Amino acid sequence: xxxxxxxxxxxxxxxxxxxxxxxxxxxxxxxxxxxxxxxxxxxxxxxxxxxxxxxxxxxxxxxxxxxxxxxxxxxxxxxxxxxxxxxxxxxxxxxxxxxxxxxxxxxxxxxxxxxxxxxxxxxxxxxxxxxxxxxxxxxxxxxxxxxxxxxxxxxxxxxx
Length: 160
What we know:
This protein has 160 residues and is α+β, with helices and mostly antiparallel strands. It contains one helix and eight strands, in the order αββββββββ.
């Protein structure tokens, strides 16, 4: 009888710890996270705007082009993490993407991949905060440091 009581108590403690950790993680991020499947597919950037920062303060994003040059760009994201974006001027870039959670919530992150590169060997990349992703529209925000605060370049995507 004593072993049954000890086993039951142990199971209850483990269940309590697991549920407590899960609740804390969700409360810390403050937002629900979109599943990986909601990111896959072909997306078009329909709008780029700025929060807390002047447009003229950002001359280049993703070490590629002006933020406005990304309006109309097409992003193809596969479930394997491979992807590519193509600007309206025809310039394209292969990427490897993933999502993660950090103190700001869910983030979309990607690395630029060049001919002969392997994603695991690329050490630099870009992180965008996921504002929303319902599987049809997606909002990603890039933080831009300003003297004493942070502004954002905000990208709105529509799924094709």
